[in-house]
Design a protein that fits this description.
Elements lengths: L4 E6 L2 E6 L2 E12 L2 E12 L3 E5 L6 H8 L7 E6 L2 E2 L2 H5 L1 E4 L11 H11 L5 H13 L15 H13 L5 E5 L7 H16 L3 E6 L2 H7 L2 E6 L2 E7 H8 L3 E7 L11 E6 L4 E5 L5 H10 L3 E7 L4 H9 L12
Parallel strand pairs: 5-10, 5-11, 8-9, 9-10
Antiparallel strand pairs: 1-2, 3-4, 3-6, 6-7, 11-12, 13-15, 13-16, 14-15
Length: about 325
């Protein structure tokens, strides 16, 4: 792969500096009538990363992805690939899994996979063998000669995913890839995505499921009401938001914390509880407070916060100014 470069001048002459971002979204906007689906959205997708576009349902994730794929034309803004405007060549090199899945129901499974691979210029025995390998991984080899319409909805989704990656695309764009999958197949899907990252592919996926984004993504952009409200590396974001936070798993009664002067907020997430202190220096005082009140502590992670907590804190506020963290 031939890289592209930014040109910078210096006292020693012209310097060619490699791009650190594979894809750049710049001031992208899209409206449908009076509805502003995407509002001046900007974010960068670094080379060799898994990038998560996260947000609640209807936030604008799919609209951004469709503009990337030229299904929708933006009202304003641009999409750059290594510094140049994306064109059809980029879109031909993408493996795209749309939110609304679409397969030819009367075609057989292996025939479907080979058909979509050939549309991307790949055919022959090697592609057929690779298709069978993926079918084996998803426990679908016995359905190889079944018609697509004979498969369950979940199995059809697996076939759609295989069509997305079978031609070995450099860029993989997945719109809500985990929707409707059971835990076993989610794990297989996650393994394959991580394999593609190790191969140097650029992966972008959208999701409203924060747990998947937190476990898989290097970088994220959070969109709310069509506007990017958080953007940067996941580690930087978590470091910033976790400074006064404690993630707690316990047995006992912690209702006394609700009115305690050192506590800013208590967020119950079922299996764990997020505690926001008023001062980051109060961690030891908080620990003693729990012990003094006979709370049995199973997990106490100071300066730790889940992406779910950050999402709930930010996405419940309505449109906000974009927050960006160093990549």
């Amino acid at each position: 792969m031939v890289g592209s470069f930014d040109i910078h001048s210096s006292k020693n002459g012209i310097m060619m500096v490699p791009h650190t971002h594979a894809l750049e979204i710049r001031n992208l906007s899209k409206s449908f009538g009076h509805i502003k689906a995407v509002r001046n959205a900007s974010f960068d997708v670094p080379e060799g990363s898994i990038f998560g576009l996260i947000g609640r349902n209807g936030a604008g994730k799919t609209t951004i992805m469709r503009m990337m794929m030229n299904i929708y034309l933006p009202d304003s803004g641009e999409i750059l690939l290594r510094g140049k405007q994306v064109d059809q060549e980029f879109r031909n090199s993408v493996g795209y899994l749309p939110e609304e899945r679409g397969l030819y129901k009367k075609m057989k499974v292996l025939e479907t996979l080979m058909f979509f691979a050939e549309l991307k210029g790949k055919k022959g025995k090697a592609v057929s063998n690779k298709a069978k390998d993926y079918l084996e991984r998803f426990d679908l080899m016995d359905r190889m000669n079944s018609k697509v319409e004979e498969l369950s909805k979940g199995n059809q989704q697996k076939i759609q995913f295989i069509t997305t990656i079978l031609h070995d695309p450099e860029f993989i764009v997945l719109d809500e890839p985990f929707a409707g999958m059971d835990p076993i197949n989610i794990n297989i899907l996650r393994e394959i995505i991580l394999e593609k990252k190790r191969e140097g592919k650029m992966i972008i996926f959208s999701t409203h499921l924060m747990d998947f984004a937190e476990r898989m993504c290097d970088h994220i952009a959070m969109i709310n009401h069509g506007k990017i409200i958080l953007n940067g590396s996941l580690s930087s974001i978590k470091t910033e938001y976790s400074q006064k936070n404690v993630t707690l798993t316990y047995e006992g009664d912690i209702s006394f914390l609700e009115s305690h002067p050192i506590i800013e907020k208590v967020s119950d997430f079922g299996n764990s509880t997020g505690i926001r202190l008023k001062d980051r220096e109060q961690t030891q005082e908080f620990l003693r407070l729990l012990l003094d009140n006979q709370v049995k502590i199973k997990r106490f992670d100071a300066e730790d916060i889940s992406l779910q907590e950050i999402f709930i804190e930010l996405a419940g506020k309505g449109p906000e100014e974009e927050l960006s963290f160093d990549q």
